[in-house]
Amino acid sequence: MDWESYLDGYNYSAGEQYYDDEERPSFENLLTKKSTLFDHLIWQLSLTRLSDEEMQIGTEILGNIDEDGYFRASLAEVATVCGTNESAVETVLRRVQEFDPPGVAVCDLGECLLLQVKALGIGGSLVESLLTHHLKDLEARKYKQAARLWELTSMTYLRQRES
């Protein structure tokens, strides 16, 4: 028996045997793993220039981000776990909030949307003003009231820009 050709066509992990390359699954299909948000954020954290203490804080922050991307701990809790102060945690949190996807590691929808607006390069726009001042009306589906208030806000905004 030709043992080399037999062993060349044998898939050790599945116990299956393939006799030609067309039957054999592609190498990429064997090694793919669905990446999670946590994996993606840890990868970005590893590429960020941080001290050992900041890296520990960053890892703790990422461990407290839920599957929707919201940061679910307080600065004080992370500071206690890491043996540091809240200011250091806040500094690292701001760095993490610059990661992809835009709007990650925030506490609420409004903060998420504002970070996304800034990531799009339209910070300081009417959209940012609408989110800052009228998000509660939009959440409550008070569209007419939000539109009326936005009209007043946008007129004020435009006057300020002209001056």
- Supply Rg: 25 Å
Stretches with pLDDT under 50, minimum 5 residues: none
How many beta-strand runs?
2
In CATH, the homologous superfamily of the largest domain goes by the name RNA polymerase sigma-54 factor, core-binding domain
Q: Number of DSSP helices? A: 9
Task: Report the CATH architecture of the largest domain.
Answer: Orthogonal Bundle
CATH class of the largest domain: Mainly Alpha
CATH topology of the largest domain: Arc Repressor Mutant, subunit A
Strand order of the largest sheet: 1-2
Tell me what you see in this structure.
The protein has 163 residues and is mainly alpha-helical. It folds into 3 domains: 1-32, no CATH class; 34-120, Arc Repressor Mutant, subunit A (Orthogonal Bundle), CATH 1.10.10; 122-162. Helices cover 60% and strands 2% of the residues. The protein has 9 helices and 2 strands, in the order H-E-E-H-H-H-H-H-H-H-H. It has helices at residues 3-8, 27-31, 37-46, 52-63, 75-82, 86-96, 109-119, 126-139, 143-162; strands at 10-11, 16-17. Strands 1-2 form a two-stranded antiparallel sheet. Helix 4 packs across helix 5, helix 4 (52-63) packs across helix 6 (86-96) and helix 7 runs antiparallel to helix 8. The longest helix has 20 residues, at 143-162. The mean pLDDT is 82.
Compose a concise summary of this entry.
α4 crosses α5. This protein has 9 helices and 2 strands; from the N terminus they run αββαααααααα.
SSE layout:
Elements: H1 3-8, E1 10-11, E2 16-17, H2 27-31, H3 37-46, H4 52-63, H5 75-82, H6 86-96, H7 109-119, H8 126-139, H9 143-162
Antiparallel strand pairs: 1-2
Helix pairs in contact: 3-4, 4-5, 4-6, 5-6, 7-8, 8-9
